């Protein structure tokens, strides 16, 4: 009987740690095109020493009946004509201390337009879908995309 109680207590105590791991952005994500529904790229998100997240394209997927792009032709500055593979498209995001499923204060680069947007994101309860919102000024004026966790 004591073994069952101890096992139940152990499970209850470890559940928050399992859940906390799921609410981390680190890993590989499939970026889904919001207009076509096709996967556009795989993005590797890492956590920097300062606690911020960095997302870099590691693979590009061709969309049927569309011209494939492999460089950021419309990017500005040092990223102008940079190869998409290795291109940092997500930066500065940090976990919201009040809502652990939200990530705030980030920037998102759209390699198709070359624009950099303010960004925020939210993980679903299973931690396998990241909903990103890129915007200029107020978040009402923006665009939302979903990324699916690969690993």
Automatic annotation (TrEMBL):
Pfam families: DUF2147 (PF09917). Gene3D superfamilies: 2.40.128.520. InterPro entries: DUF2147 (IPR019223). It comes from the Bacteria. Transmembrane segments: none annotated. Residues 1-20 form the signal peptide. Keywords: Signal. Residues 27-149 form the DUF2147 domain. This is DUF2147 domain-containing protein. It comes from Acinetobacter kookii.
């Amino acid at each position: 009987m004591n073994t069952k109680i101890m096992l139940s207590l152990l499970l209850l105590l470890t559940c928050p740690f399992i859940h906390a791991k799921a609410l981390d952005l680190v890993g590989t994500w499939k970026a889904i095109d919001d207009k076509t529904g096709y996967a556009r790229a795989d993005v590797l998100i890492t956590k920097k020493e300062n606690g911020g997240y960095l997302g870099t394209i590691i693979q590009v997927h061709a969309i049927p009946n569309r011209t494939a792009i492999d460089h950021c032709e419309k990017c500005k500055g040092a990223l102008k004509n940079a190869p998409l593979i290795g291109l940092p498209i997500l930066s500065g995001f940090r976990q919201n201390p009040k809502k652990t499923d939200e990530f705030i204060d980030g920037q998102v680069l759209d390699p198709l337009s070359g624009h950099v947007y303010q960004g925020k994101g939210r993980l679903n309860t299973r931690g396998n879908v990241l909903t990103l919102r890129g915007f200029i000024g107020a978040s009402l004026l923006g665009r939302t995309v979903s990324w699916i966790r690969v690993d």
